[in-house]
Amino acid sequence: MSSCIKNDIPYPHIQPNIIAIEAENQSRAAAIDSIERTVTLFLNEAADIRCVRLASLTLSPGATCPDSALIVQGLDLTQPVDLTFAMYYDYVWTLSAQQTIERYFSVANQVGASVIDADNHTVTATVPSGLSLNDITVQSIKLGGTTAVMTPDLNGKSVDFSSPVQVTVTEFGREQVWTISIDQTDIAVNIDRVDAWTNVAWVYATAEAGKTTGFEYRLSGVDVWTSVPEAWITRAGGSFSARLVNLLPESSYEVRAFSGEEYTLPAQFTTMTNIQMPNSSFENWWLDGKIWCPWTDGGSPFWGTGNKGATTLGPSNTTPISDLSSPTGYRGAKLESKFVGVSILGKLAAGNLFSGDYVATEGTNGILSFGRAFSNYPTKLTGRIEYTPVPISHFSSGFENLVGEPDTCIVWCALGDWNEPYEIRTNPSRRKLFDPNDPGVIAYGQAQYGHATGGFIDFEAVLEYRSTSRKPKYIIVVASASKYGDYFTGGSGSVLSIDHFELQYDY
């Protein structure tokens, strides 16, 4: 009769995850998204993106890869590739790659920068209209990766560009034909763009390379022009730009560029306002049951904490600092990392504070929404903090070597142009953390301390911008008493106290 028993117990649905992945000629760590089941590999110039071989691949325990033969022979990642991984059931992950290749082209007497179209394999440069196209000196050229060979080699040669010139770039046994054209212009100097911030403006211009170039600016309605100091100007061939600082907010200005004796017409721009984040001194708090909230009862929250998660097993670990001189009785926030739970049944909850919302608790893990609407251009995040660390006492897999080392706090700020807040998940099986190299990031800066500050100190996190023209949609500010708190790693008892935060808008 036992031979007639039917095994109809269903297999569990457990997603096989990619824990770690590394490709040959990788430029930085891969971006792994367990929620969307995607991996992005970042390749350096020496990589063949049409045949990417993996140096290592670590899957979650019990997972297998039926597509292993495809991986061994190399993946063509010029387009995303779907791979199947199995654990009782099949799950599809999508692998893609990003490769940044430095390409450049310049000629003598060039006006502005060359336009390089890597998709269509074309290059266009511009020279003054009075210059003969029959004898143009190529000063620099690079159109492929580090192993590419160009035929003919135009570098340093005098070339007839009266009609477009073609070169062949050979790499990894494959050939690409590039077409190079030279245009002419009557414009001696031109302002291409002005990006106006609050106390800062960026001006971009073009002129003939080799000429004396610069900028002048003034408040609208003022007669006298002020020369832009050389220290504020950057030049690259026929392109030059300036960073104007110490400007007044919400004010109208004019700027003009010059090349030799030629001046552009004034370009007008208006600076933005000085905006601060709400409750940046953390004077507003209310107690919702046992959950401390950094906003007024019934008010609109700007800051969130992990208190909802911490209080599932213990008290709030982000709490207000009492201050009798404050009209509310509070000034500042105390972030304390604590082990919450009983015996081994629990985990480290890092004291934290962030711009955004605590969305939900997933078991003993958090789902967070990072970011508040914001459209200005701060240059740095500053404030006053005090840090008292203890040795790291709790850890998760991969962080064993940190046990006994001093804990480290971190405060970081990011601006991005995502269409929605940035979702964070701390569940190891579906982990999604913030990536400073995310394509949506416009600017990022951080400050961290791995020692006791001995009282309150001033800090600053300088924002490094990837673009001066991309418009921010969200600002994310995060503070944590334990840098690796997202991995439940830190010292139970480390305390980060925040007196206030302030956005700066000048350099």
Describe the protein:
By secondary structure, this protein is mostly beta strands. The strands form ten sheets. Strands 26, 31, 32, 33, 35, 36, 37, 39 and 40 form a nine-stranded antiparallel β-sheet that branches. The longest helix is centred in the first third of the chain and has 6 residues, at about 70-75. The N and C termini lie far apart (about 85 Å). The model has no long low-confidence stretch (mean pLDDT about 95).
Task: Give the topology.
Layout (H helix, E strand, L loop, with lengths): L17 E6 L2 E8 L4 E6 L10 E6 L8 H6 L7 E7 L1 E11 L4 E4 L7 E3 L4 E7 L7 E7 L6 E3 L6 E2 L5 E7 L2 E12 L3 E8 L4 E7 L5 E7 L6 E2 L5 E4 L2 E6 L7 E8 L2 E2 L3 E4 L15 E3 L2 E3 L9 E2 L2 H4 L7 E5 L7 E7 L1 E5 L2 E5 L2 E11 L2 E6 L1 E2 L6 E9 L20 E8 L5 E4 L15 E9 L7 E6 L1 E2 L8 E7 L14 E10 L3
Parallel strand pairs: 3-6, 9-14
Antiparallel strand pairs: 1-4, 2-3, 5-6, 7-10, 8-9, 10-12, 11-13, 13-14, 15-16, 16-20, 17-18, 17-21, 19-20, 21-22, 21-23, 24-25, 26-31, 27-28, 28-41, 29-30, 31-32, 31-40, 32-36, 33-40, 34-38, 34-41, 35-37, 35-40, 37-39
Features of this protein?
single chain; 507 residues; mainly beta; 9-stranded antiparallel β-sheet; 5-stranded mixed β-sheet; 48% strand
Radius of gyration: 28 Å
Could you describe the largest sheet, including whether it forms a barrel?
A: 9 strands, antiparallel
Percent strand: over 45%
Structural class: mainly beta
First and last CA, distance: 83 Å
Quaternary state of the chains: single chain
Helical residues, percent: under 10%
Shape: flat
Average pLDDT for all residues: 94
Tally of helical segments? 2
The low-pLDDT segments are: none
